[in-house]
Specification:
The radius of gyration is 17 Å and the shape is globular. A four-stranded mixed beta sheet has the order 1-2-3-4, sandwiched between helices. The N and C termini lie far apart (about 40 Å). It contains four helices and four strands. By secondary structure, it is an alpha+beta fold. Helix content is about 50%, strand content about 15%. A hairpin with an 8-residue loop joins strand 1 and strand 2. It binds zinc ion (ZN). The site of zinc ion has 7 residues, from loops.
């Protein structure tokens, strides 16, 4: 089952509740990416935004090309966070399939990138929330400084 075929079978606005949740999740994802970028700047890390690591691959939000290092922020809903993901009650089997397909795609893409010589860091959206953010940024900074070529 490809992601495309799942998308074409997307439930039509199943309920106002699900629609509101999806919109909230999307806004939150964007917010955490903006927050992350400003925190990385604050600790002195320089990176490229919307970087394409290889032809035919999707763009990555935050990349450190000099270190061959890519950073992905996984939304707790869309990427099926083990702590926060709750399967919506309506269209549950469609959502399960959708979330599983995303996890498979993440794994496939990660393996492909590592095969091309990139290191990949993935952080959960919840790791960027206020109480966890500083530690997460410190962990990322450590990875950046100890991965790949020296500048
Ligand atoms: Zn989470």
């Amino acid at each position: 089952m490809t992601a495309t075929s799942i998308r074409t079978r997307a439930p039509k606005a199943s309920s106002a509740g699900v629609r509101r949740m999806m919109q909230a999740v999307r806004v939150r994802d964007t917010t955490s990416e903006v927050l992350l970028r400003s925190e990385l700047h604050r600790v002195g890390l320089r990176f490229r935004k919307n970087y394409r690591p290889a032809i035919g691959l999707p763009r990555v939000d935050v990349a450190f090309p000099g270190r061959r290092l890519l950073l992905f922020v996984d939304g707790c809903f869309w990427h099926g966070c083990p702590i926060h993901f709750r399967l919506p009650k309506s269209n549950a089997s469609w959502w399960r399939e959708k979330i599983d397909a995303t996890a498979e795609r993440d794994a496939r893409q990660g393996a492909l990138l590592e095969g091309l010589g990139w290191s990949v860091i993935r952080v959960w959206e919840h790791e960027l929330r206020a109480e966890a953010c500083e530690e997460t940024v410190a962990r990322i900074a450590h990875c950046v400084r100890f991965t790949g070529a020296r500048d």
